Design the sequence.
């Protein structure tokens, strides 16, 4: 066991250049490159093979910024600034968003813009907001589907990837459209994406037929929704007509989830199956939402004890060098859940965010 405090091990591991640049990126092959070129030729949105903005790095950067906010770690700001400088200055400049999940970086960009007033960040921030509000396809109810090729399918992941950014953008740049889109995205999933018997969400739903898709109680999906809602709530005006309703649904959902936290602090990859594998991505996002909810005054103090229990579980799953293990692999589609467990950004980043709040020595 290392003599370094837990927060240092996780923090310094996340700061390593390899982690942000090569730790995990969508795999590129000849087929993907050809598909991208054909899609671009036909005028369709597609992920570029060399595109540098993925939610996988955004979730790591969110953790780094929490370390600066909570613990004053200047190194975190330097790492984040270097990450964006490499993409804005050393290449051809800002690449316009190609898919919804790449916009997750906008949240940290606004944080950095506020902190350092870096003017070159303003354009990408505005372009990301414009992409979501004006350019990205909407469902028949006006919410964002996960992919343009499935224009009526609303995925749970989207809550965590775009709602905090939209709510934050709405507050800082006085955009009612952004605020309302964030609120609508959350409200619609709470209304149409949940199972009425268990009170747990499905992976997705069809916005026309309201048919539910994927499994009930997918751990990381649950992580995405609580992670996204708690960060969005911070920036949604309390005067908004839906604010109190969102708070009430969030509290009710958290109360339901607490019964699925096991005695060691974990959530499972499918939370309502006690025999399924533990999942540090679900556990870390859940713990973060609990701790942030208490700090924002929307959850009771007992939830902080449960957040501490989450962190104890995460410590148990962390290597001596600060790498968080026991994370379920990438989900490649509805019903296509990974059976591999290891180290991935979607556990490392939220773990760092939780560590930053709880300041574990």
Sequence:
């Amino acid at each position: 066991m290392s003599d370094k405090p837990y927060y240092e091990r996780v923090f310094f591991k996340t700061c390593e250049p390899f982690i942000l640049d090569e730790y995990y990126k969508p795999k590129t092959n000849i087929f993907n490159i050809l598909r991208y070129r054909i899609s671009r030729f036909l005028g369709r949105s597609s992920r570029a093979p060399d595109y540098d903005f993925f939610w996988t790095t955004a979730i790591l950067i969110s953790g780094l910024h929490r370390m600066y906010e909570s613990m004053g770690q200047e190194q975190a700001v330097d790492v984040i600034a270097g990450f964006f400088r490499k993409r804005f200055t050393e290449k051809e400049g800002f690449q316009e968003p190609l898919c919804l999940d790449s916009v997750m970086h906008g949240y940290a960009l606004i944080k950095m813009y506020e902190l350092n007033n870096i003017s070159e960040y303003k354009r990408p921030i505005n372009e990301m907001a414009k992409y979501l509000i004006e350019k990205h396809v909407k469902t028949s109810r006006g919410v964002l589907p996960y992919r343009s090729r499935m224009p009526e399918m609303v995925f749970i992941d989207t809550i965590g990837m775009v709602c905090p950014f939209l709510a934050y953008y709405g507050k800082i740049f006085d955009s009612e459209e952004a605020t309302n889109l964030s609120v609508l995205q959350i409200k619609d999933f709470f209304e149409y994406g949940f199972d009425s018997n268990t009170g747990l969400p499905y992976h997705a739903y069809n916005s026309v037929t309201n048919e539910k898709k994927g499994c009930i109680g997918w751990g990381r999906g649950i992580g995405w929704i609580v992670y996204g809602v708690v960060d969005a709530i911070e920036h949604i005006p309390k005067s908004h007509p839906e604010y109190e309703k969102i708070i009430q649904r969030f509290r009710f959902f958290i109360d339901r989830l607490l019964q699925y936290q096991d005695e060691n602090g974990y959530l499972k990859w499918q939370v309502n199956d006690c025999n399924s594998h533990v999942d540090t991505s679900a556990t870390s996002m859940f713990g973060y939402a609990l701790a942030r909810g208490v700090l924002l005054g929307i959850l009771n103090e007992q939830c902080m004890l449960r957040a501490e229990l989450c962190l104890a579980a995460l410590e148990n799953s962390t290597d001596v060098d600060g790498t968080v293990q026991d994370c379920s692999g990438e989900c490649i589609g509805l019903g296509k859940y990974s059976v591999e467990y290891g180290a991935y950004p979607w556990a490392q980043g939220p773990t760092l965010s939780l560590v930053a709040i709880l300041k574990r020595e």
User: Anything to note?
Assistant: The first strand starts at residue 153 and ends at 155. Residues 55-71 form the longest helix (17 residues).
